[in-house]
Amino acid sequence: MKDHACSWLRILGAAITAGAIATAVPAANPGEPRAARTVRVTGAGFDDLRGAIVHSKRPTATGLIQVSTATVELSGDLHGRVLYQVTTVIDQQAGTLANTGDQVFSGTVAGSDPVMLHDARFRFDENLKSGTDRGSVYLVDHIAGPQVRCTLQVTGTGKDGDGNPTFTYSGECEFA
Fold first, then answer.
1. Quick one: which of 101, 110, 66 has its CA closest to 82?
2. CA separation (Å) from 27 to 14, 17, 96?
């Protein structure tokens, strides 16, 4: 009888172990996450400087450092708004302006459900003499919505009728 009880315990233990493994390893089904996909994105936007809030200005030996909050409106494959807190460093002697800081995008990406993404690495550089400006955006920190990460290159295109800087963007967004 003792051997019979031990056999039962082994069978029961094996069944429990098999059940635990079955629940720990999901079966292939339509509810599983899909493989990552990358899409090319393009569009345009403008920096709404009329509503900017300047928090501080500090003169430097060659120019100015300013901290402010502003918004950007995006159209195209990324459709929505960016709220950003920016540190602007203007070097009048070198004829340069550099923007860095933090920004949050709220909107849609390539027709997705609404998403919120954070970027703490963006950088925009402007040549104050020629007026040319370029930048890089790294919307890679997920806050809400679909799991997506976007890396963009931005090129200034001038100013709109209200004097707000305009730009085009292109890059890639990866959906997890």
1. 101
2. 20, 16, 57
Count of residues in the chain: 176
Phi and psi (nearest 5°) for 174? -110, 120
- The pLDDT tens digits for 30-62 are 555 567 899 999 999 999 988 899 999 999 999
CA separation for the pair 95, 73 (Å, rounded): 27
Distances (CA, A) of 59 to 6, 53, 90, 104, 126: 83, 18, 9, 28, 19
Backbone φ and ψ of 43, nearest 5°:
170, -165
CA of 116: how far to CAs of 44, 104, 125, in Å?
19, 7, 25
